[in-house]
Structure formats: structure tokens, C-alpha cells
Write a structure and sequence with these properties.
Main location: cytoplasm
Protein name: Imidazole glycerol phosphate synthase subunit HisF
Largest sheet: 8 strands, parallel, barrel
Catalytic activity: 5-[(5-phospho-1-deoxy-D-ribulos-1-ylimino)methylamino]-1-(5-phospho-beta-D-ribosyl)imidazole-4-carboxamide + L-glutamine = D-erythro-1-(imidazol-4-yl)glycerol 3-phosphate + 5-amino-1-(5-phospho-beta-D-ribosyl)imidazole-4-carboxamide + L-glutamate + H(+)
Structural class: alpha/beta
EC number: 4.3.2.10
Order of helices and strands: EEEHEHEHEHHEEEHEHEHEHH
Shape: globular
CATH class: Alpha Beta
Subunit structure: Heterodimer of HisH and HisF.
Number of helices: 10
CATH architecture: Alpha-Beta Barrel
């Protein structure tokens, strides 16, 4: 049985961890290096770092913070935000990232996925999909959830896999920060459409939401931000709840 992964996500803007609701109303929550180090020591299976303003500001991901964070975490570390070229991917991997996430640039230039996967291996390439529900289905949103591309999110997930992505980071814009639970329908739709691992993101408000998404969908991992950053619940509490519900989970504190 596949071990499910619990992943804290650090959304970073101007050097600080931030969190909002539906991708807006951001508030500062702490230092990314300190928080990542703490999560690494306290049971996180992976850590994701997203420089959420890099694309909108037309700049590269903050490599110095990535380097400092990579030196202090001992679990797989994914970095995204502002990734536009193969040089950006190279720079982040050299800075210590284990995987690189791409979103807006991959939509604009899907060959970036192929080029990156060919050079570094699909296992290093995560395509982030921010999806919002419209009358005709889920659309891919880019530029921090602010631009509707009109592209069908399910079909885009399939294209990303075909282009060489090794994993999908799927965020529901509709449930992001709402804390009422993951978007189960969207998550299962994407899981059913691809063969690569999918990370569910957006909407977690309590440990039960993790066990729910693991039991009701075939997602490989689930991600949360607010409940960890605000010390509402610990990674250990989430894992204990998952275990109690029969979810195959790695023990907190064991790599």
C-alpha cells in the first residue's frame, strides 16, 4: 500500500510566509527558513516553497532564501514561483531544491516541461495547476490565480503528464484558505485523468480533512498551510488522525 504524504506549504512574498483566502487578502505569518526547518524536524514528509509574487512581479524566485532553507531541511524540498526558463530550473536545483514547480510559464510554453524533464528527469518536475470552477468545468488559472486561461484543467493535467511532468500540484482556487475541506470532486477528476502522483491543495482546516481526501480519492499526498502556520494543528496530530482512520501514513519524525 502506498504511503500517503503530508506536506506543509510555504507561500512566500517579499521574504515572508503569507496566507490568504481564495488567493487574496494575504497576511504575514513568519520566516520561511525557520518554519521550514521546524516542519522538517517535526514530521513533514516533504516541504513546498512557493514564491507567489515572483511571476506577477516578473522576477526570479528568491534563490538566497531557497539556499538557506535547503541547508536546514532534511526532507524532499520543492520550489516554485517565477520559473520561466530552463535556466531558472537549473538555478533552483543548484540552490538545493529537490524538485521544481512550474505553473504560468508551463501553460504558456508546455515545451518547458519537456525540456526540463529531459535534462533533469521527470521526478524533478512538478506542474502546479490552480483550478477554478466555471459553468463549463474547471479552468486553469495563472499569475497567482488572477488570470483565467479558459483551458480545461483536467485536459491540461493530461497534457502536463504527456510533456514529462513527474507530479501534479493541484490547488482549488475555490476552496483555498476556506478551511472547509479539500475539493474532492476536482481532486478525483484529476487523479482519474493521469497516472502520475497528484498532491491535493486548498481548503484544509482540520486533521480530518486529510484523512477524508485520502479515503475518498486516490490522491498521493495532501498539502496544507494555515493549520500548520497558525499552530492550529501539528503534523503529528494530522498523522495520528490519518492512522486512526486506516490511512497508510509515515510515522511523524521518521524520514
Amino acid at each position: 500500500m502506498i504511503v500517503k504524504r503530508i506536506i506543509p506549504c510555504l507561500d512566500v512574498k517579499e521574504g515572508k510566509v503569507v496566507k490568504g483566502t481564495n488567493f487574496v487578502s494575504l497576511r504575514e505569518l513568519g520566516d520561511p527558513v525557520d518554519m521550514a526547518s521546524s516542519y522538517s524536524k517535526n514530521g513533514a514528509d516533504e516541504i513546498i516553497f512557493l514564491d507567489i509574487s515572483a511571476t506577477n512581479e516578473g522576477r526570479q524566485t528568491m534563490v538566497d532564501i531557497v539556499k538557506e532553507t535547503a541547508e536546514k531541511v532534511f526532507v524532499p524540498f520543492t520550489v516554485g514561483g517565477g520559473v520561466r526558463t530552463i535556466d531558472d530550473v537549473t538555478r533552483l536545483l543548484k540552490a538545493g531544491a529537490d524538485k521544481v514547480g512550474m505553473n504560468s510559464a508551463a501553460v504558456t510554453n508546455p515545451e518547458l516541461i519537456t525540456e526540463s524533464a529531459s535534462r533533469f528527469g521527470s521526478q524533478c518536475i512538478v506542474v502546479a495547476i490552480d483550478a477554478k470552477l466555471y459553468d463549463d468545468g474547471w479552468h486553469v488559472m495563472t499569475y497567482g490565480g488572477s488570470k483565467d486561461t479558459g483551458i480545461d484543467a483536467i485536459k491540461w493535467a493530461q497534457t502536463a503528464e504527456q510533456k514529462g511532468a513527474g507530479e501534479i500540484l493541484l490547488t482549488s482556487v475555490d476552496t483555498d484558505g476556506v478551511k472547509d475541506g479539500f475539493d474532492l470532486e476536482l481532486t478525483q477528476a484529476v487523479v482519474d485523468a493521469v497516472r502520475i502522483p497528484v498532491i491535493a491543495s486548498g481548503g484544509c482546516g482540520k486533521p480530518e480533512h486529510f484523512s477524508e481526501v485520502f479515503k475518498k480519492t486516490d490522491v498521493s499526498a495532501a498539502l496544507a498551510a494555515s493549520i500548520f502556520h497558525e499552530n492550529t494543528f501539528s503534523i503529528e496530530e494530522v498523522k495520528e488522525n490519518c492512522k486512526s482512520q486506516g490511512v497508510n501514513i509515515r510515522e511523524a519524525g521518521l524520514l
